[in-house]
Amino acid sequence: MERRAFLRNVATSVTGIFGGAVVAPFMTTATLHPETSSLGKAIGKTTTVKVGGSATFSAPMPSANMTKPVKGIIIQPTKGVFKAFASACPHQGCPVGYVKAQQSFMCPCHHSTFSSTGALTGGPAPTGLVPFQVQVVKGVLYVR
Ligand code: FES
Q1: pLDDT by residue (tens digit) across 119-134?
Q2: In this structure, which residue's CA is closest to atom 1 in ligand 1?
Q3: Which of 9, 34, 46, 48 has a Cα at 20 to 30 A from 83?
Q4: Does 113 lie in the same domain as 80?
Q5: pTM summary value
Q6: Under a CB-based contact definition with an 8 Å cutoff, are residues 127 and 117 in contact?
Q7: Distance from residue 86's CA to the centre of ligand 1 (Å)
Q8: Residue 26: which domain range?
Q9: Residues 19 and 64 in one domain
């Protein structure tokens, strides 16, 4: 087999194995800065979330069981402890809010409630809130 035909066969085989749509993202991922990809998405400074308070952010990417980008909500229940969740209620997707006085999340649509750990505590939602991993590096919050 001549060299040009061999290379064409290899390229066809790789495209066949991975599919064209998968090869392109794989190549893009390889060019990302390793530190950025391992930490996740920087969403802001820790000082933007007061102790006992909350803030919302654009989620970095869908979780494995979500099909489109979502909004997130991050809280600091005690000093230096951050927890982040997808803000979409698992019942029908309404955005939940954090009630500081009760240290819990509440859904305004059908009144599901969730603890500060995201666990379901009441209402029609079938599960708790979907969590994000949070990392703090040099005062910056990263989620993934
Ligand atoms: S959408 Fe939240 S309880 Fe129905």
Answers
A1: 999 999 999 999 999 9
A2: 92
A3: 34
A4: yes
A5: 0.71
A6: no
A7: 14
A8: 3-31
A9: no
Point out the ligand 1 atom lying closest to the alpha carbon of residue 89. Answer: 2
Q: Strands, DSSP E only, in 1-143? A: 41-45, 54-58, 71-78, 81-86, 97-99, 104-106, 113-115, 120-122, 131-132, 134-137, 140-143
Instruction: Please tell me what DSSP assigns to residue 53.
Output: -
The predicted-structure confidence for 1-17, as pLDDT tens digits, reads as follows 454 443 344 333 333 33
Structural domain tally of the chain? 2
Alpha-carbon gap, residue 99 to 52, rounded angstroms: 9
| Nearest CA residue ID for atom 3, ligand 1 | 110
Pocket of ligand 1 (CB under 6 A): 89, 91-92, 94, 107, 109-110, 112, 123-125
Distance CA 111, CA 124 (A): 8
